Amino acid sequence: CGSPRKSGAGDDHGPQGRASPQGYVPRLAGKPAQYLLNQLHHFREGRRANAAMTPLLDTLSPAYLQEIAQHFAGLDLPYPAPPAGSVARPELARGLQLAQHGDPAAQLPACVACHGTALTGRLPATPGLLGLPRDYLIGQLGAWQTGLRRAASPDCMATIARRLSAADASAVASWLAAQPVPPVAQPQAASASP
């Protein structure tokens, strides 16, 4: 089939699956292949809504979707430094708390529990959270909260996102977006525990 670029896949994500500077198009490079494949199916099946993605995927075969996922998962590219932010220290401290330790009183698990100790993802299908723009992270949490983004059962992220207050969603997104991505940013093995 050749490169996924022939079909237009990846155009908005940049030529190498990097995030766009607009902040609402995530990086695909290096995400777990199963996660990417799941997202392609979610767009196609209406669990994720995006006016550009859905028609792009309608005509592609399951084998080609798998090839696209494998292509972008196989890219190992450096991440840019996080943008300088102007988030208040208490908000960043709350974001750190949520990402690393969660909030048991609010029934919020730590992000590291599912997304790996380095927050670079966990195989086979959990994406990394570092290297994503704050606006994108907030948008995705909002989509989980409102049902615009869904996953097959059990939809753990929808449950967690609905427990987040607006202030906590902003705090964790701000903290995640401010973190540098480690030089080795591969997803954590499935058997490894936080």
Q: Kindly report how far apart the N and C termini lie.
A: 39 Å
Number of helices: 8
Query: If you average the pLDDT, what whole number results?
Result: 87
Structural class designation: mainly alpha
| Largest pleated sheet | 2 strands, antiparallel
Radius of gyration: 16 Å
Query: Strand portion, in percent?
Result: under 5%
Morphology: globular
Tally of strands: 2
Percent range for helical residues? 40-55%
The H/E string reads: HHHHHEEHHH
Per-chain topology:
Blueprint: H1 33-45, H2 53-57, H3 62-73, H4 89-100, H5 111-115, E1 121-122, E2 126-127, H6 134-146, H7 156-163, H8 166-178
Antiparallel strand pairs: 1-2
Helix pairs in contact: 1-3, 4-8, 6-7, 6-8
Structure, explained:
A hairpin with a 3-residue loop joins strand 1 and strand 2. It is globular, with a radius of gyration of 16 Å. The chain has a two-stranded antiparallel sheet with strand order 1-2. With 194 residues, it is an all-alpha fold. The termini are far apart. The longest helix has 13 residues. Helix 6 crosses helix 7 and helix 6 runs antiparallel to helix 8. The N terminus is likely disordered. It has eight helices and two strands, in the order H-H-H-H-H-E-E-H-H-H.
